[in-house]
Write a structure and sequence with these properties.
This protein has about 45 residues and is mostly helical. About 90% of the residues lie in helices and about 0% in strands.
């Protein structure tokens, strides 16, 4: 059962990171800054 949940959790994490980057991009207007900001948050 845990093996089935892990890919789903990883997929959710990837979707959350993607949404965070897109939100930061819409706020900053700069993809590089958005990626850097979200990278710092993900660490």
């Amino acid at each position: 059962m845990n093996a089935e949940k892990r890919p789903d959790t990883a997929n959710r994490s990837a979707l959350l990171v993607r949404e965070a980057v897109m939100t930061a991009y819409s706020l900053t207007g700069n993809l590089s800054s958005a990626t850097e900001l979200c990278g710092e948050l993900a660490d």
